[in-house]
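Entry type: protein chain
Record version: 2
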Amino acid sequence: MTPSPHPPEATEVSGAEPPSAAWELLLPAAGAPARARGRSLQAALRDAVRSGRLVPGTRLPSSRDLAGDLGVSRGLITEAYEQLAAEGYLRTTRGAGTWVGEAVRAAPPGARDLAPGRPAGARVDFVAGSPDLSLFPRTAWAAAQRDALSGLPHATLGYPDPRGLPELRTVLAALLARRRGVVVEPERVIVCSGVTQAVTLLGIVLHARGQHAVGVEDPGSPQYEDLFATAGPRAVRLPVDDQGLVPGPLRESGVRAVVTTPSHHFPSGIAYTPSRRAELLDWARARDGIIVEDDYDGDFRYDRAPVGALQGLDPEHVAYTGSVSKSLAPGLRLGWLVVPDGLTDELVARKRYMDLGNPALDQATLARFIARGDYDRQLRRCQRAYKERRDALLAALEEHLPGTEVSGIAAGLHAIATLPEGCGPHGTLLERFAASGVAVRPLSHYGTSTEERLSLVLGYAHLTPARISEGVRLMAHAAQRADHARARSTKR
């Protein structure tokens, strides 16, 4: 049932101003750097709805009015409205404006959405970033945990070394050298609570050294603005093309540190070309800079051997980080950071006072899990499952959305699907996908996008082949309805 454009419970805001609390929240976002302004405005509006500052049923100003009052382009406001409507936070009715969705419920005090943009209740959730948690090897993990606990010295249950348990750092060093080509000794491994903590630690140390800006990929992970704002430095978005990070803007930016995903760029799925990898290393040597290599899913390559880690080419200019979040489960909060010698002591000191070390039993369990060969078996199991799901996605797109161009399929847990021409306006399509029960993010969600055709980032690893096929079928039907509606409008 379609909601009335003027629901009786609506709190209509006269004029062009939303409630003052939400209005104040938008002002810093409007003043963000040009490259980040659109994402900042979307995040500010999203937070205003979640927090209850914009209550369900509130009518928002027109895109023209709000753009004029904030001093930004109307296109930024239109894009923000379309994106939040696609996510379910807002709804738009032709001729009646834009409203906060009635189904939105404010988060309880103190609550924080740690997985933004993953709508609840979607029939099929294509949002990228999650592995299949049902593949977690409970039996093997429990056996490794019992084995670890039975042999754990009493002293190990005290405050642990902030670098991590020696036995875990030893097996991690061997694993990373064998599987990813990392040049590493156990003394240079720091066990972290995932990649987020690793990058945060690096940001804190670099900021303390006087580096007030860090380069990040554009498009790329949308978390870095907030992450580095907490750590100290400012995130500077730098363009990525079909070969990797573009050298010119990197040199011109003046940064001396940059976060990259060279083995499998997120979200485009490309692997940096050999020439771009070489240029990136040349930049780091010339600037005495540091490259932070986020190898978030480097083990998942399906049709050929994985691309080796960039760190292996220059261990003194590359800090390498990864985790078990995609191979086992993000809830374990276990990852690693391999650092150049010159940064090790500062990072260990910062980590000591950040958390006094990671849980000893969890570290000991992972060490036994790797040493017993269980980790390699888990990777093989996941690779088989995810390759099957990738192939299911390709088959479903070919069947239901012929003409779709798919890229980034050689590795990872997601693919880029560029829809055929003539599917209709991007915002309208995203709204119809959401209304059909499909949660999906456009490529533009992750940074600058100039593509005329709508490109979708489709996460598939956490979905069964049947669910993948259902989701693509629902999108195809939604696109057909949009096409028919446009045709009727044209005839009028």
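Comment: The chain has three domains: 20-100, 124-130+377-491, 137-372.
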